[in-house]
Amino acid sequence: MSDAIAHLAQLDASPSRGLTLPDGRHAFLVQVHGRVSAYLNRCPHQLVPLNVPEGDFLEAGGELIQCGMHGALFLPESGECVFGPCQGRSLEPLPISVDAEGNIYLASE
């Protein structure tokens, strides 16, 4: 198995976290209602990073992923855009797995 990309403890203080994958792609993790999801850090509207300011991927209520550039809102469990200029499109999900020790791995795509 490859190296872990993060650990669940890193989502304790803030439920979202940006990271760079081993292949150089920029991604992020979000934890909402105990479920962790991973996506490429690229809004489907204009292919810009979602986080403005750095590291913040959730709207103020902590329930939806938000594009800091355009205000688009996405469901954390599916990445589907539910508000904004990219409605009907989705973030690009990344398959992950979490082991018993809380290590988060990028699963085989």
Could you describe the 3D structure shown?
With 109 residues, the chain is an all-beta fold. It has a single domain, classed as 3-layer Sandwich (Rieske Iron-sulfur Protein). 0% of the residues lie in helices and 31% in strands. It has no helices and nine strands. It has a three-stranded antiparallel β-sheet, with no helix packed on it. A three-stranded antiparallel β-sheet has the order 2-3-4, with no helix packed on it. The two termini are 14 Å apart. The relative contact order is 0.22. The model has no long low-confidence stretch (mean pLDDT 90). Pfam families: Rieske. It comes from Billgrantia antri. Residues 3-87 form the Rieske domain. This is Rieske 2Fe-2S domain-containing protein. Keywords: 2Fe-2S, Iron, Iron-sulfur, Metal-binding.
Number of helices: 0
Helix content: under 10%
CATH topology: Rieske Iron-sulfur Protein
CATH class equals: Mainly Beta
CATH architecture: 3-layer Sandwich
Could you state the order of secondary-structure elements as H and E?
EEEEEEEEE
Spatial separation of the terminal alpha carbons: 14 Å
Number of strands: 9
Low-confidence stretches: none
Spatial order of the strands in the main sheet?
Answer: 1-9-8
* Overall geometric form: globular
> What average pLDDT do the residues reach?
90
Domain Rieske: 3-87
Pfam families: Rieske
Protein name: Rieske 2Fe-2S domain-containing protein
Organism: Billgrantia antri
